[in-house]
Design goal:
By secondary structure, the chain is an alpha/beta fold. The longest helix is centred in the middle third of the chain and has 37 residues. It is 35% helix and 22% strand. It starts with 5 loop residues before the first strand and ends with a strand. Strand 1 and strand 2 form a beta hairpin. Among the domains are: 140 residues, 3-Layer(aba) Sandwich (Rossmann fold); 186 residues, P-loop containing nucleotide triphosphate hydrolases (Rossmann fold), CATH 3.40.50.
Length: 483
């Protein structure tokens, strides 16, 4: 493939964070200009690391990375860094450029229109909702009009209107694009192929075709390799048995036995290293606080954002044990702010019954201390000190022995989500408050999480913009903040 047609090429690239955390081992692939590729792989496989290698913020330990030097690159990461939360909207966009942009206000308005967002330029980033921040991340990449657009989980926190707007934009986008996402329907609308980062072999497999076709192709290939290996295994056993038989005969038969053993060894070497499927987390349940009775929470009024102004609304919501409430409404209406005030007990017009333990899953993981180790974080919410139970729960969420002593800040966003769920299991809450619990989570884990939430017998308030996920959970009442 000639350089002048290639946007990005990895040639036998290896990368690791220290000696004990390898991410890539001799990985190779090439992307043509104008192509749109999905990057797939298990939580913690290193997808975001790969994007950082492409953008140049990380350097490989071995091998070479070619990125066409004439290409401009913009990278919309999964979350806005905490240190940028105090910036105004204008300052946030100014950071996208090295030189001062004299018509920045006009450009901001134009790009906000693309992501379907209206906002004053002096508004602080921290005052935007999670969904609005997702749109700002996307806009910060688009305002640079890049030749290579890199998007890391761009649909997280987006409502259906936001996802539709982004999908339409990407379908019409004529330049090179790499996207990480767990939203299959979204990906299938525009993807030309898949880069699959294998967490076990540390290699990258490249597939051409729309998303669903590629996923089928991967599954079929694994079946084929497993059938081939099963055949080899049969023949290996047969040859070993014959070798033992002839070896006991002595004389020239020993020579035949040696040939049989050699043949068995050749077949062992010929066996294909089948890509092991990404593991799903184990089935789990969130135990309920003991002694729950009567009304656990009452909401008589709440505040929503209408035309950028807080508006009080009267409601009548009573949540008892084993009742599940879905909170719905578009980005920016105030869902996250409401959940935060409910969880902290500071919501005006809402009352949580005395003694009720609240388990709160925040979309930005700010309930986690990033300086804690996973072990410290989990043990801090447990009743007592049952280390065996802690490790068993952690292992069920794919938090390995080594990972348990890692700082939470060093984990991928998906792994932070799994830590947050493990904490809920150990907390045993009476009231569960969940703000976009599918964000960053591998699609293989979602049915397991939905099953656990469906079976949860305490009171639950859920916000999620993922219909397929919500459909798997028993919902007793829907509170639409828009209506």
């Amino acid at each position: 493939m000639a350089h002048d047609d290639v946007a990005v090429r990895f040639n036998k690239v290896s990368f690791e964070y220290g000696w004990d955390k390898p991410i890539l081992n001799g990985a190779s692939f090439a992307l043509r200009r104008g192509s749109k590729f999905t990057l797939m792989g298990q939580n913690g496989a290193g997808k975001s690391t790969l994007l950082n290698l492409i953008s140049g913020s990380l350097k490989p330990n071995d091998g070479s990375i070619f990125v066409d030097p004439s290409l401009t690159i913009a990278y919309a990461k999964q979350v806005i860094p905490r240190e940028e939360m105090e910036l105004t909207l204008k300052e946030f966009f100014e950071k996208c450029f090295q030189d001062k942009m004299y018509d920045i206000d006009r450009q901001i308005d134009a790009v906000l229109k693309i992501v379907n967002l209206e906002a004053k330029h002096d508004k602080k980033i921290k005052l935007f909702s999670g969904g609005q921040q997702a749109r700002l991340l996307l806009a910060s990449a688009l305002i640079q009009d890049p030749d290579l657009l890199i998007l890391d989980e761009p649909t997280n926190n987006l409502d259906p209107a936001g996802i539709a707007s982004l999908t339409e934009f990407l379908m019409n986008y004529g330049k090179t694009c790499i996207v990480i996402s767990h939203d299959a329907n979204f990906l299938n609308c525009f993807t030309d192929g898949v880069l699959y980062l294998d967490i076990f072999t540390k290699k990258i497999h490249q597939y051409i075709g729309d998303y669903y076709a590629v996923v089928e192709e991967i599954a079929e290939q694994i079946k084929k390799e497993e059938r081939k290996n099963a055949q080899y295994e049969k023949e290996i056993i047969a040859n070993k048995e014959k070798a033992n038989f002839f070896a006991n005969k002595g004389g020239k038969m020993r020579l035949v036995a040696r040939k049989m053993r050699l043949k068995a060894e050749e077949m062992e070497a010929a066996k294909v290293d089948v890509r092991r499927e990404d593991k799903a987390i184990r089935n789990f349940e969130i135990p309920v606080q003991e002694g729950l009775a009567g009304e656990l929470m009452n909401i008589s009024s709440l505040t929503v954002m209408k035309n950028h102004k807080p508006t009080a609304k009267k409601v009548r919501v009573s949540i008892k044990k084993n009742q599940h409430l879905l909170l719905s409404g578009p980005n920016g209406i105030g869902k996250t702010t409401l959940l935060e005030s409910l969880a902290s007990g500071n919501a005006q017009g809402a009352k949580i019954a005395e003694g009720i333990k609240v388990g709160y899953y925040r979309q930005d993981f700010s309930t986690l201390n990033f300086e804690d180790t996973v072990f410290d974080s989990l043990s801090s919410v447990m009743k007592g000190t049952d280390e065996e139970k802690l490790r068993s729960v952690a292992s069920g969420f794919l938090l390995t022995k080594k990972m348990v002593y890692a700082k939470i800040g060093s984990l991928s966003e998906g792994q932070k989500g799994l830590v947050a769920f493990a904490r809920l299991v150990l907390e045993e809450p009476g009231l569960l408050i969940l703000d976009e619990p599918t964000n960053h989570i591998n699609f293989r884990h979602l049915p397991v999480i939905a099953k656990a939430l469906d079976a949860y017998q305490g009171a639950m308030i859920l916000v999620s913009h993922v219909p397929d996920f919500v459909e798997q959970i028993r919902i007793d009442e829907i509170l639409d903040l828009e209506k």
